[in-house]
Amino acid sequence: MIPMIDMDKCTGCKKCVEVCPPRAIVLKEKKAQIEDEFCEECGYCAGECPVGAIHVPFPRFGT
């Protein structure tokens, strides 16, 4: 699944931009934004974010 960015937490540090293999993350107005069409859903960005602004949603199976 494509990672989600909490814009209120994002500090614009660029760590996610630097670690993204397909360069699917760009900074716009000093905040990270994922260009969905380029995202490979690797999750590296979530692991690199120092403030926890990025998370990868996992699908729920059953309820």
Structure description:
This protein has about 60 residues and is α+β, with helices and mostly antiparallel strands. It has a single domain (about 5-55), classed as Alpha-Beta Plaits (2-Layer Sandwich). Helices cover about 15% and strands about 20% of the residues. It contains two helices and four strands; from the N terminus they run E-H-E-E-H-E. It has helices at about 15-20, 45-50, and strands spanning about 5, 25-30, 30-35, 55. Strands 1-4 form a two-stranded antiparallel sheet. Strands 2-3 form a two-stranded antiparallel sheet. A hairpin with a 2-residue loop joins strand 2 and strand 3 (about 30-35). The radius of gyration is 12 Å and the shape is globular. The model has no long low-confidence stretch (mean pLDDT about 95).
What's the short version?
The chain is an alpha+beta fold.
Tags for this model:
Alpha-Beta Plaits; 4 strands; two-stranded antiparallel sheet; 63 residues; single chain; alpha+beta
Largest sheet: 2 strands, antiparallel
Question: Shape from CA axes?
Answer: globular
Number of helices: 2
Architecture (CATH level 2) name: 2-Layer Sandwich
Find the CATH topology.
Alpha-Beta Plaits
Structural class: alpha+beta
The strand count comes to 4
Which value, in Å, is the CA radius of gyration? 12 Å
Order of helices and strands: EHEEHE
| pLDDT < 50 stretches | none
How many angstroms separate the termini?
19 Å
